[in-house]
Structures are given as C-alpha cells and as structure tokens.
From TrEMBL, chain B:
Domain Sulfide dehydrogenase [flavocytochrome c] flavoprotein chain central residues, every copy: 164-278
Domain FAD/NAD(P)-binding residue range list: 33-135
Official protein name in the record: NAD(P)/FAD-dependent oxidoreductase
Domain Flavocytochrome c sulphide dehydrogenase flavin-binding: 357-420
Protein keywords: FAD, Flavoprotein
Record SUPFAM superfamilies: FAD/NAD(P)-binding domain (SSF51905), FAD/NAD-linked reductases, dimerisation (C-terminal) domain (SSF55424)
PANTHER family membership: FAD-DEPENDENT PYRIDINE NUCLEOTIDE-DISULPHIDE OXIDOREDUCTASE, PTHR43755
InterPro entries found in the cross-reference section: FAD/NAD-bd_sf (IPR036188), FAD/NAD-binding_dom (IPR023753), FAD/NAD-linked_Rdtase_dimer_sf (IPR016156), FCSD_central (IPR049386), FlavoCytC_S_DH_flav-bd (IPR015323), FlavoCytC_S_DH_flav-bd_sf (IPR037092), SQRD (IPR052541)
GO molecular function: flavin adenine dinucleotide binding; oxidoreductase activity
Automatic annotation (TrEMBL), chain C:
Entry's Gene Ontology molecular function annotations: electron transfer activity; heme binding; metal ion binding
Protein name (database record): C-type cytochrome
Record keywords, A-Z: Electron transport, Heme, Iron, Metal-binding, Transport
Keyword Iron on entry: yes
PROSITE patterns: CYTC
Species name: Rhizobium fredii (Sinorhizobium fredii)
Length: 108, 424, 85
C-alpha cells in the first residue's frame, strides 16, 4: 500500500482583495471498480470522491468527484484574498480515507 | 534493365547543366546513384534494402562509426543491459549488403545540382537522396538548457555518451535523492519512452536506493500508455514515482545548472539527478536543406516518402510529420522499406505494390513486465492514417506480461539484424 | 530475405522487422522454414483471433488474400538454412 501524494500550488503572498489561483492534484492508486482480481472477485472502487478547501474556518470550495474524471484528479479554482491565514485542503477517498495538506497565506 | 536505362537517359539529359556546374563530380558507374544521409534506423534500413537489390549504387553517409540504439537504452540505465550489447557497426552492411559507407558529416545539399557536400569538402552526386537525420532539439524553450548544460543535466535522447553520463549520475546518487525527468511536448521521439525510463530507473532504485523518488515534470497533460504505466507504478513501485502534468506546474521554463534545479511557472524543484528531455524538431541537415515546414518537421508523400518541399529528396524516420505514425524505430524501419521500394520503382522500373505501414513497440514496466501495441497505417489523402490499433490492457496476467517482455528481447535481435544486416 | 522487388518480397520485408531472418530466435517464432499452405493457414488463424498475438492479428487483418498468397509463396520459395558457423 502506498501513501497518496497530495500537492497544491498557491502563491506565497497576495494583496488584499486580489483574486488568486489554486491548483490541487493528488496521486493515488485508483481502482475503477470495474476490474476483477485473479479469483474473479470485483475489486472495490477506490476513487477520490470529494475535495474541500477551507480558508481559516470557512469552507470556500467543494467538489464532488465521480468516475471517469482522472486517476489523479486535478482541480483549479480561484479565491479572493481577505486576510492572512491558513488554507486547508482535504481529499476524500472511497473507503473513508482522508488526505490533507495546509498552507499559510500572507495577505499584504 | 532496359527500363531504367531509358529513365536514366532522361535524367542525364535533364542534368547536363548540373553536371557543368559540378565538373569534379565523377560518375564512375552507370547504375542510378542513391545517397543516404544518416545511418541510424531509417538510413541504414533504406540503404540495406536498396543495396540488396544490387541495381543501384548506394552510398550511406553517417558521422559515427558505431551506432547505439535508443531502444533498450532504458534497460541499460537500469543496469540490465550493457551498452556494448546495444552497439552496432556498419561492417556487415558494407560486406554483405552491397553498399558503401562514408563516415563523415554531410554539411550541405544542393537540390539544384543534386549533390551532397561532406565535411572534408568532397561532393557526391545523386539521382535520389534520402535524408534520415533523426531529431534535433529546439533551443530556447527551456532557458539555459544548451549543449553544455546537457553535460550536467543529460537528455540521453540520443543513445551513447549521454546514456553513459546519466547512468553514472544515477549510480553515484545517494539513496533518498530525487531523480527529476522533464518530459517533452508532442510530437517527440518515442512517446512512451520517458515513462519507460521512469519505470526502469524505479526498478533500479527499488533494489539499491529504495528511499529515492522520481518526479516527472511533464510538458503535457496526458501521455502515451498512461493507464498502463500508472497502474504498474502503483503495483511495482508504490509511492516512488510522481507525475505532474503541465496544467499543474505550467511546465518547466528554466534550468539552473549550478543548483541542479528546474523552475516551473510557480515553483523550483531541486534534483539530485536531472534528465531534461527538450522539445524536438527534425535533424539539422533537414532544416538546412529546407525540407522542414513551420512545424520544424518534414512533410512527405505518404507512399514514396518524397519530400513535398524538395523533389528528388526522400525523408524517413523521426524527422517526418504528416500523419498518425509515432516517432519510433519500428515506424521508421517500416517507412524506410516503403521508401526503398518506391525509389527502386522510380529509378529501375521495378513495380511498387501498395505499401503497408506498421508500428509495434515493446515497452518495459519492469524487467519481466512489458506491454506492446500494434498499429496498422495506410496512406490516405496525402497523410498517413491509422487503420487499427491494438494495445495491451491493464489487468493482464503476469504470465502474459512476462511473455511480452521475453518477446521484446527476441524482437530486438531480429530487428537490429534487419537494420544493420544479417549476422550483425 | 531474398533480394528482389517482387510483390511477395515487398510484403516479406515487413516480416523481417520481428522475425529473425536466419531462423534463430524462439520468443518470436522463425518463419523461414514453413511451406506456403502452412503460412496461409497461420495468417487466417491470426486474422480470426486477437488472442494469440495482437501484432500478428493486426498484420493479418491488413493483408488481402492476394497479399497473403504472395508473401507465403515468397517465404516458402526462400526457405533458408542457418549459415554454417
Ligand atoms: C529512450 C528511448 C527509447 C526508445 N525505445 C524505442 C522502442 O522501444 N521501440 C521503437 O520502435 N523505438 C524506440 N525509440 C525511438 C527510436 O530510437 C527512434 O525512433 C529511431 O532511432 C529513429 O530513427 P531515425 O533514423 O529517424 O533517427 P536515428 O536513429 O537517430 O538516426 C539518425 C542518424 O543520422 C546521423 N546524422 C544526422 N545528421 C547527419 C549528417 N548531417 N551527416 C551524417 N550523419 C548524420 C546521426 O548520427 C544518426 O546516427 C526510443 C527512443 C528513445 C530515446
């Protein structure tokens, strides 16, 4: 079993009210749920089914993901800078596993 | 015989002025003359098939005395093949396949007088010229990446000293280092090869440097065989290989040779070993001869492989564009045969039958796990069009994959005998 | 391969990209000592099914009956024995 690698690309600092881009990607071992193992049993589906971004304590972006998106889903979205604080990124995988990453953003 | 003699007279009549302009070009024989520039996969195949017919005077111009195949060079990087086992000379071609080899660089072509100039100043006259000069790298797409940077951050996209350099760096890398592969934009030589390289280097790391990582920074958002590769990476090398698409990084813009780091739009990645595979275009002599269009590649007729820009000059191999064929040794070899029979038809009056173009590549995921594809092509509307594609599937049994890896080794020896001559 | 530009020879050139001309090799079976009818039969089997080799399935699908006949005749007429050592 391997630990998925989440990554985000966020500017280190932005000016107040600026709209800035965030890119997020995660590499994990995807299972489509359509394959069978050597004994003929269906291998359970394991995809990233959801993604959430929090800015401080506020949820600012959410995506529900489905089959046929990509093995390693890539997301790009925009936020408006309000104040310095913590951005938190959370990926949800089938089976209940959660992977997260956080990033301090400085608003000038 | 009579047939080509008649054609020959026509071409001589048309070439009177040309002959006057190049008085010291000797015409020693009365067989039609074919000159081939580049003795790699494409050039050696054309020359060998023309030489075997014995009806033409065939001269192959190749700078190097020894050719090292790019295919299987990823196995060398992983310590699974010696470089010597991937190296071929031209002796068998000259001794058994009726052609002459000159080890010189071709420095210029004059399509008007139908002559090729070599580095030492000698000029050779041709009735037909074939250019099979492989690839060159586009400069300026990645800032600071030039020939001297390649001595520190190798591309290893031509096999030989570059492969040896990369192998040495991988061997001396400390466990826990990051091996960065910068993968090029389309179109480029051998679409699955950067990812095969990642797979086989991972195999080497897994045995000797298990804490090391491989990071692929791609100029593309998708790649050839992606599903097969990503499934195998999870199975063989869990957590070791990370692939970042262009849409995430914005692609590599700059290399910092001194710091051994690469810079994308938003981030700097530090490498223990960096393999930079730059964007590509047709080999330099093709560009100089004005065989290339704005894309940097050579448009050709899909039946004869004659350039659509310069009459009497044919181009085969990685240098061409204008269709669905991937840039591979197999495609190149298939084009070269069609080209050889087309040249024979026009110079000696033999018949050219409808050509069949094929590609079939073996790609290693691990030494005993390989996949393959088989694609058929046909000329259609001035382009090369795919007819059918078959490719290995995710989830095939280990036994099937082992058999494919075994076949790959058989293919290598048969294929190189076809190109460099039987008995090589 | 025999050095001529006949129809059979032009198609057989494609075979030589994978099949060792000297009849060596076992991973990819040699085709230098088969008779005409055997080659035709093999090609028909490959055309009918992808299961044994998708490379040969692709090749067989791309050739007409006439082409299969021409290449089979050429290969059978050029049966080769291994070069003496
Ligand atoms: C890592 C890697 C793995 C690969 N794996 C596979 C694989 O598994 N299967 C496959 O089918 N393909 C594979 N390929 C692709 C294959 O190597 C190329 O497609 C093939 O070599 C193209 O042949 P070519 O004749 O166009 O060019 P080349 O083989 O590069 O030959 C060009 C030759 O021309 C010579 N030359 C150039 N200019 C001049 C001049 N002015 N005067 C004299 N000589 C000149 C050069 O010295 C060179 O020898 C791989 C490539 C790489 C990089």
């Amino acid at each position: 079993m391997t630990t998925p690698v989440p990554r985000v690309m966020v500017p280190g600092s932005v000016s107040r009210h600026e709209v800035f881009p965030i890119k997020a990607i995660i590499q994990h071992e995807m299972e489509t749920g359509l394959r069978t193992d050597s004994t003929g049993q269906v291998i359970p589906r394991k995809i990233i089914n959801g993604f959430v971004c929090r800015y401080g304590s506020v949820e600012v972006f959410r995506a529900d993901l489905h089959e046929a998106v990509a093995a390693n889903p890539f997301l790009e979205f925009y936020l408006r800078a309000t104040e310095s604080g913590r951005l938190e990124f959370i990926w949800q995988e089938d089976g209940g596993a959660i992977y997260s990453l956080s990033h301090e953003i400085v608003v000038t | 015989m009579t047939n080509w003699t008649r054609r020959q007279i026509c071409s001589m009549a048309g070439g009177v002025l040309a002959a006057a302009a190049a008085p010291h070009v000797a015409r020693s024989q009365n067989k039609p003359r074919v000159v081939v520039i580049g003795g790699g996969i494409g050039g050696a195949t054309v020359a060998r098939y023309l030489g075997d017919l014995k009806t033409m005077d065939v001269t192959l111009i190749e700078t190097k005395r020894r050719y090292v195949t790019c295919f299987f060079s990823n196995l060398y990087l992983a310590g699974l093949r010696s470089l010597a086992s991937l190296t071929f000379g031209f002796e068998v071609l000259t001794e058994r396949h009726g052609l002459k080899v000159i080890h010189q660089a071709a420095t210029g072509v004059d399509p008007g007088t139908k002559t090729v100039t070599l580095r030492d100043g000698v000029r050779l006259a041709y009735d037909r010229l074939v250019v099979a000069a492989g690839i060159a790298f586009k400069s300026g797409e990645i800032r600071n990446y030039d020939a001297s940077a390649a001595e520190i951050m190798p591309h290893a996209w031509n096999a030989g000293p570059q492969s040896e350099l990369l192998r040495r760096q991988l061997e001396s890398m400390e466990d826990g280092g990051v091996f960065v592969i910068v993968a090029p934009p389309d179109p480029f030589r051998c679409p699955p090869a950067p990812y095969e390289r990642a797979s086989l280097v991972a195999y080497y790391f897994k045995q000797f440097k298990p804490r090391s990582k491989i990071l692929i920074l791609d100029a593309k958002d998708r790649f050839s065989g992606q599903e097969l590769f990503q499934e195998a990476w999870g199975r063989h090398y869990p957590g070791m290989i990370e692939w970042l698409p262009r849409q995430f990084t914005g692609a590599v813009k700059i290399v910092d040779v001194a710091a051994r780091s690469v810079v994308t739009e938003g981030e700097t990645f530090k490498a223990a070993v960096a393999n930079i595979i730059p964007a590509q275009k047709a080999g330099a002599i093709a560009e100089k001869t004005e065989l290339t269009d704005a894309s940097g590649w050579c448009p050709v007729d899909p039946v004869t492989f004659e350039s659509t820009l310069q009459r009497g000059i044919h181009v085969v191999g990685d240098s061409i564009i204008g269709g669905d064929m991937p840039k591979s040794a197999f495609s190149t070899n298939s084009q070269a045969k069609a080209c050889a029979f087309a040249i024979a038809a026009s110079l000696t009056g033999s018949q050219q039958f409808p050509s069949h173009l094929f590609n079939s590549c073996y790609t290693f995921l691990a030494p005993d796990d390989a996949f393959t594809n088989a694609i058929t092509f046909t000329p259609e509307g001035g382009k090369i069009k795919t007819v059918e594609t078959f490719i290995s599937k995710v989830g095939e049994s280990a036994e099937v994959r082992r058999r494919t890896a075994h076949q790959a080794v058989g293919w290598y020896s048969a294929f190189t005998a076809d190109v460099f001559g039987e008995g090589s | 391969m025999a050095a001529d530009a006949s129809h059979g020879a032009q198609i057989a050139a494609a075979c030589a990209s994978c099949h060792d001309p000297s009849g060596r090799g076992h991973a990819i079976p040699p085709i230098t000592s088969l008779d005409e009818q055997t080659i035709i039969k093999f090609m028909h089997n490959y055309r009918a099914s992808e299961s044994s080799s998708h490379v040969m399935h692709a090749v067989a699908l791309s050739l007409s009956e006439e082409e299969i006949g021409a290449v089979a005749r050429h290969l059978a007429a050029n049966v080769r024995h291994r070069d003496p050592p």
